[in-house]
């Protein structure tokens, strides 16, 4: 158990809908990262928040957004969902802003029908 | 920009024989390199990490990796495979230290390790 929690574990929704994925980092970790794992794209970095501020951005679609709250938990919002958004979404956390070990949560499996 | 290439998409070994998973990286700076493992329907677990200290890095479960700058390689090895090692393994490089993308991890495409009894 990494200490990173993600909810929900599974999510089934329809195209055009909006969902919110939630992540609680390990106690004491200030950074939260979001990654997407799909069969065709592999594991891709989406976005990083550090102590409430956006720190780095990767291949995140404009339909997707994230935020980190004062208690350091983070939410990833996915809107206008398409079939291709079906994937496993991982959250990770680390102590500082980068370079150190990232600890991954168990992931949220999203299926868009 | 940094990148990682895992040279084998699948590796199959017999239990008790050595494991070699190959990884080459490309980076314009001195990177941090990681190996993560993902068991079926599980999250990602860190096996080991290189951060410019010793070039031979020991990890969990008997795995180790050697950083070779001249070859831009970071291959993962284990002397004797166990059935429980069957999983997907990812070679990972971090962003540039001091840059705003330092936390960005770039993953290889993964190597699926199968262990036969």
List keywords for this structure.
heterodimer, A: 113 residues, mainly beta, seven-stranded mixed β-sheet, four-stranded antiparallel β-sheet, globular, B: 117 residues, six-stranded mixed β-sheet, 51% strand
What do you see in this structure?
The complex is a heterodimer of chains A (113) and B (117). By secondary structure, chain A is mainly beta. Chain A has strands at 5-7, 10-13, 19-24, 31-38, 42-50, 53-57, 64-68, 74-78, 87-94, 103-104, 108-112. Chain B has 117 residues and is mostly beta strands.
Number of strands of chain B: 12
Mean pLDDT of chain A: 94
Tell me how many strands of chain A there are. 11
pLDDT < 50 runs, ≥5 residues of chain B: none
Radius of gyration of chain B equals 14 Å
Separation of the first and last Cα atoms of chain B: 41 Å
Structural class of the secondary structure composition of chain A?
A: mainly beta
Q: Could you spell the SSE succession of chain B in H and E letters?
A: EEEEEEEEEEEE
Structural class of chain B: mainly beta
What's the pLDDT, averaged over the residues of chain B?
A: 91
Q: Main β-sheet of chain B, in a few words?
A: 6 strands, mixed
Query: Largest sheet of chain A, described in full?
Result: 7 strands, mixed
Q: Which regions of chain A contain 5 or more consecutive residues with pLDDT less than 50? A: none
Give helix % range of chain B: under 10%
Indicate the proportion of strand residues of chain B: over 45%
